[in-house]
Description:
43% of the residues lie in helices and 14% in strands. A six-stranded parallel β-sheet has the order 3-2-1-4-5-6, with helices on both faces. The chain has a single domain (16-202), classed as Glycogen Phosphorylase B (Rossmann fold, 3-Layer(aba) Sandwich), CATH 3.40.50. Helix 3 packs across helix 7 (154-166). It is built from nine helices and six strands. The protein has helices at residues 16-25, 40-43, 45-55, 73-79, 95-101, 117-123, 154-166, 168-182, 187-202; strands spanning 30-35, 62-67, 86-90, 104-107, 128-131, 146-149. By secondary structure, the protein is α/β, with parallel strands linked by helices.
Amino acid sequence: QWTVIPDASSGLTSQPARAAELRGQFGGDFVVGHIGALDDSHKGQLQIISIARRIRDTESRVRFVLVGSGRDANMLKAAAAGLENVVFTGYVDDVGNYLAAFDAFIYPSRHEGLGSILLDALEFGLPVVATAVGGIPEIIEDDANGFLCAPDDIDALTNAVLRLERDTELCERIKSVNKFKAEGYSPARMTSRYIDIYSRLVGGGAA
């Protein structure tokens, strides 16, 4: 008999003053965040830039913030040249503050294991736009706590982002759903599950 215990969220925290400072940098924009290694063959960040280019003239209040560093940083920055709605932060050590400053989260991976940063996004109540690859559909249910699209389906990814930007009530509903869902992935909950399994094994029961 197999028992599968998923990854836990990181238990990230945020400082309200710092998160508010970050929000202030983006004005009243709808901030769609992404956190991950800048590696397009894995994380698919060129898709984010394609979305930004597509909507820059019609949706001026949507801004994409890419947090992280990696081998494709220079290539991605070159691809985004001239796009004022794309921001690269580089590596940061206060990821929780950025999550607290985002309005939504985008994760267009081309291949993925679980995508553990998504658990952190859920913990902060963020609606998620992601690709249906690897273990991501185990965390994100399409049209329930976010939106799932096929990799490189720029039309679908763009429409999902715009749907969130235009529907405040939808975002608030998803925020509540995701905060509740994240409780099931908390470090305390995962630790409890491990302890339960070990206790049953030591006691001679089936795991």
